[in-house]
Amino acid sequence: MLDGSEVSRLLDILGNRNRRRIIELLRQKPCFVTEISERLVLSPKAVIEHLQMMEREQLLISCQDERRRKYYYLSHNINVIIDLQKQDGVTLSLSDGDKTAKFVGSLLLFRRLIRARDDLLSSLEDLERDIGAKVNEIMRTGSDILTSEKELDIILALSHYNLTLEDLEELSGLSMDELSRILRSLIEKGLVERTDTEYMIRGAHGK
């Protein structure tokens, strides 16, 4: 049983919609940062911040695979039950006409939401195909430029968003020395550049 302060912290965590989405995704299977970022359309930096917060609160546990990618999974089965009890002496009533109008309004809104969802899903399917084709093209053409799969992983991560060295370390699971060496190589090849705090694909300023 959680005490009052623990319940308050848990509600603070679950009060964020994206953290709830991450938890729902991790209910299905363990995931690594880039996978969560792609599935939920969130920046890797935001995903890392949410994961680190939940890991500090011991809601998540992480482990590394053979490629040193850090996987996250739920440390507890999270079930939140809210019990709402009707207050005595308070009654609300609607006429039959009001109930019918409200019901029809709900049905029409539901219809619009379903159609909007179908349109979005169709667009997302097209985007997923385009992204998949582009990834294959990058892997094919990059084989003549990149010298390792680790370089490809870093390039693909930076293709999503500009990232700090700490972000890349979290994403890749590489040691700081190896990561720094790979980034220097990518900079020398003219593929990556850096600002004071972030690394990015060359020419990606403001894009």
TrEMBL record:
Cleaved signal peptide residues: none
Superkingdom of this protein's organism: Archaea
Originating organism: Methanoculleus taiwanensis
UniProt xrefs under CDD domains: HTH_ARSR
InterPro entries: ArsR-like_HTH, HTH_ArsR_DNA-bd_dom, HTH_MarR-typ, HTH_MetalResp_TranReg, WH-like_DNA-bd_sf, WH_DNA-bd_sf
GO molecular function: DNA binding; DNA-binding transcription factor activity
Residue intervals of the HTH arsR-type domain: 1-93
Keyword Transcription listed: yes
Name listed for the protein in its UniProt record: ArsR family transcriptional regulator
Pfam families: HTH_5 (PF01022), MarR_2 (PF12802)
UniProt keyword terms in alphabetical order: DNA-binding, Transcription, Transcription regulation
